[in-house]
Write a structure and sequence with these properties.
alpha/beta, TIM Barrel, 10-stranded mixed sheet, 9 helices, globular
């Protein structure tokens, strides 16, 4: 079934009104790993093919952002490599510059039943600077300004008061949920974002890619992710928290001509396996052949090169409407 991926949440809601009661930490969401690492960034650090606006249009609803600052301008980076042509925002905006926050706001204004999670994982600075408390205050000021509205009660930014359901986000029109890694952020939460340490658990299955064959890498990562979803203890999946699977990192065991380390060829192999597994997990069943286990629902599946090979937004739509 082909759907308009830019409106997949709205379409699912229209087909199944019961999804209004699903907490956002249990909603199936396509995620974008290092979402701003495209365009003018060193090819070895490039993780996405599409711009933020294009990622929204193909259904991405969770964005993994890494923030770097230079004199009041906040832009994307991946490790030591920067994407200065992909600024999130700035204290003083250049009218000739496209800002990533503005792309998200424009999309949300045009699509009234879509919800976006923006997760800020780390905060760094350019050479000879540091990400200071003042930078943190400026960043929050920009975040609230950019996602605000006129009148003031038209803010798109969700003000945390517990984990919202999809329906609450729609009802209040607070459809941008910000999550900040409070262990890396030098600022103080003034009530406008979710603290990572309190609201999010991620699972990155690090099996040392260069030590594995392609098949054992996939098998071991799949098993590790599933064991995490099966575990109901303190180290397992907590259904009251956002949960992000960071297994899908698009590495390949082959050398590509342009030297990309996180490449589209690698992502195509991983995506096909893990998107299928995700659908089994969301239904509460094992994704491993010959293994019978009850599995808790996952939340965000984090993808490199989101949408290049897979239509995961349609998969999420089908899960919500019972079509999968």
């Amino acid at each position: 079934m082909s759907i308009d991926k830019s409106r997949w949440m709205s379409l699912a809601y229209g087909s199944n009104m019961a999804i209004a009661d699903i907490p956002m930490c249990q909603f199936p969401l396509p995620g974008s790993h290092d979402a701003g690492s495209y365009g003018g960034i060193n090819v070895k650090s490039k993780t996405q093919h599409y711009s933020i606006a294009e990622q929204l249009a193909i259904g991405v609803r969770y964005f993994d952002f890494r923030v770097r600052v230079d004199n009041g301008v906040f832009f994307s980076h991946h490790g030591s490599d920067e994407s200065r042509d992909n600024p999130y925002t700035a204290m003083t905006k250049d009218p000739n510059t496209t800002y990533l926050f503005d792309e998200i706001v424009t999309f949300l204004r045009a699509n009234q039943e879509e919800v976006v999670l923006i997760c800020f994982q780390d905060f760094t600075s350019v050479w000879n600077q540091s990400f200071t408390e003042q930078d943190a205050a400026d960043f929050l000021s920009c975040l609230k300004r950019d996602f605000g509205g006129v009148p003031a009660n038209d803010d798109l930014l969700y003000i945390p008061g517990g984990m919202p359901t999809y329906g609450k986000c729609i009802e209040t029109n607070q459809r941008a949920l910000a999550i900040i890694n409070d262990k890396a952020f030098p600022g103080t939460n003034d009530g406008w974002y979710f603290d990572w340490s309190q609201y999010l658990r991620d699972r990155f299955s690090d099996y040392k890619y260069w030590l594995h064959s392609w098949s054992t890498l996939i098998d071991d990562t799949l098993a590790d992710q599933q064991n995490y979803l099966v575990d109901t203890g303190s180290d397992g999946r907590d259904l009251d928290l956002f949960w992000v699977s960071q297994a899908i990192l698009g590495y390949s065991n082959v050398t590509t001509p342009n030297g990309e380390s996180q490449n589209k060829d690698g992502a195509s192999h991983l995506n096909s396996v893990f998107t299928a597994a995700y659908k089994d997990w969301w239904k509460g069943q094992s994704a491993i052949q010959g293994v019978t286990q009850a599995v808790q629902k996952p939340n965000v599946l984090l993808l490199d090169y989101s949408g290049v090979y897979d239509d995961f937004a349609t998969d999420c739509y089908n899960l919500l409407t019972g079509s999968a």
